[in-house]
Amino acid sequence: MTGPADEAGLHTRRLAALISPLRRSLLALTRETAGLPDVPDSQVEVLRALPRGTVSTPSTLARRLGLRKSTMSNLLTTMEAAGLVVRRPSLDDRRRVEVLASAHALSIFDRFDATSARLLAEAATALRPDDLAALTAAVPALEHLGDALADRRRD
After folding, report:
1. Cβ count within 10 A of residue 30
2. Residue 94 to residue 72: CA distance in whole angstroms
3. What is the DSSP annotation of the chain?
4. What is the rounded distance in angstroms from the CA atom of residue 45 to the CA atom of residue 76?
5. Domain edges within the chain
6. Beta strands at 97-101 and 85-89: parallel, antiparallel or unpaired
7. Considering the domain 4-124 in this protein, what is its CATH number?
8. pTM (global) more than 0.85
9. pLDDT for residue 154 is more than 70
10. 60: left (phi over 0), alpha (psi -120 to 50) or beta
11. Per-residue pLDDT tens digits for 81-97
C-alpha cells in the first residue's frame, strides 16, 4: 500500500524525468524556428538576471547566481566579446563596474520568448481540453517550484 509521500515521490520523479527533455526540445525547436544563436546556459542565466532596464555589478550577479567572482568575470568577458553584455563604469563611482544586457542580447531574448510562446501555443492545440486545463492550473505551482529551487541554489 502506498501513502501520499510515496505518491508525491513518484510524481516528482516523473516531473524530473520530463523537465529536461521538454526544455531541450523547446529550446532546439525555438532556435531552429527563429534562427537564433546557441547561447550557453550559463550565459542565459546571466542575461535572465539582467532584464531590460536592469543594471548590476559583477559581484551582485555572482552572488545572485551562486558563482565565484572569478567565474563571473570570465563569463562576462566572453559575453562582452560576443556582444551580449556591456560593462561600463558606474555613474556614481567610476571605480565600480556596472553590467547590463546589450540591445543585441535583449533582441535575442525577445525573439526567443515570442517564438517559444507561439510554439507552445501551437503544440497545446493538440492537447485534450482536460490536459490543457491541467497545464494552465500548474503554471503558478511550477513558478513557485522554480523559485524554491533558485532559493536552495543561492543557499
Report:
1. 20
2. 20
3. ---HHHHHHHHHHHHHHHHHHHHHHHHHHHHHHHT-----HHHHHHHHTS-TT--B-HHHHHHHHT--HHHHHHHHHHHHHTTSEEEEE-SS-TTSEEEEE-HHHHHHHHHHHHHHHHHHHHHHTTS-HHHHHHHHHHHHHHHHHHHHHHHHHH-
4. 12
5. 4-124
6. antiparallel
7. 1.10.10.10
8. no
9. no
10. alpha
11. 999 999 999 888 888 99
> Which grid cell sits at 1?
500500500
The grid cell for 85 is 553584455
| 115, 33 Cβ separation under 8 angstroms | yes
Task: Residue 45: name the closest of 73, 17, 64 by CA.
Answer: 64
Q: Which three cell numbers stand for residue 53?
A: 532596464
pLDDT (mean) for 120-125 = 95
